[in-house]
Design brief:
Helix content: 25-40%
Distance between the termini: 16 Å
Largest sheet: 6 strands, parallel
Strand content: 15-25%
Radius of gyration: 18 Å
Number of strands: 8
Oligomer: single chain
Strand order of the largest sheet: 3-2-1-4-5-6
Order of helices and strands: HHEHEHEHEHEHEHHEHE
Number of helices: 10
Shape: globular
Length: 242
């Protein structure tokens, strides 16, 4: 299994040798396809947020799109790290399934504003980190969900809108916003090796299980996109090329 930024629909593609890893024993090709982007992104999100290490157990994190590919990976890793996790999604059914993976606090943002929910659930204290991939107004809202010295880890803009930043809100909490782009980090060989060393150890311990929600043949790739756009996917959507 490997990581490449381009050519997801190709029958063959070139991958840097250092970005290839042996498929774990017992895993299907679909699970292997669902692993690299999801789990390296989630791992680096926790790394950037400062959650790694025994001394940081119990930190709070809000995970947006918690039922998606990166979201479910973040829940599995967060469980290992002992994080107190809050996850937002548009479906109670999906949230129930994510809770089975280890999510403690589920927020259906269609039924309740997640900013209000975080304020109530944490008794006004907020969270230590937000994994944010929505952009637009959600970046500003996520900043307001932080406690003092908290951090937004921004790894996408699914809304298609420029993230809104209020620097005064950051000043008020000594908070920060940090970008995460796996394409850039994948060029840092030492960093990737260190991440894989930890991820592969967790795999060997049976703690990581890529969630594959849907598998489509190449001819039906458009149906996969429809699922994503309608927010009906759970876990990773995999495209299978015969």
């Amino acid at each position: 299994m490997g990581y490449t930024q381009w050519a997801a629909f190709a029958e063959k593609t070139a991958v840097m040798p250092e970005l290839l890893w042996t498929i774990p024993e017992g895993w299907s090709s679909e699970q292997a396809a669902a692993f690299p982007v999801n789990y390296f992104t989630a791992y680096f999100a926790y790394w950037e947020a400062g959650f790694l290490g025994q001394a940081h157990r119990g930190k709070r994190v809000l995970i947006h799109a918690v039922a998606g590919g990166v979201g479910t990976a973040a829940v599995e890793i967060g469980k290992i790290l002992g994080a107190e996790m809050y996850g937002s999604s548009s479906s109670n059914e999906k949230l129930t399934r994510v809770k089975e993976l280890g999510l403690q606090n589920a927020i259906n943002y269609k039924e309740r504003d997640y900013e209000e929910a975080i304020r109530d659930l944490t008794k006004g204290e907020g969270v230590d980190a937000v994994f944010e991939m929505l952009g637009g107004e959600h970046t500003a809202k996520s900043i307001r969900c932080l406690r003092d010295f908290g951090k937004i880890v921004q790894y996408g803009t699914a809304t298609g809108k420029q993230p809104q930043l209020d620097l005064r809100a950051l000043y008020a909490k000594a908070a920060s916003v940090q970008g995460l782009w796996l394409t850039y980090l994948s060029g840092k060989r030492e960093l990737m090796n260190e991440a894989w060393k930890q991820l592969s150890a967790w795999i060997a311990e049976g703690k990581l299980h890529p969630v594959v929600g849907h598998v489509f043949p190449a001819q039906k790739a458009s149906e996969g996109y429809e699922l994503l756009m309608e927010r009906k996917n759970f876990g990773k959507v995999v495209l299978k090329i015969a």
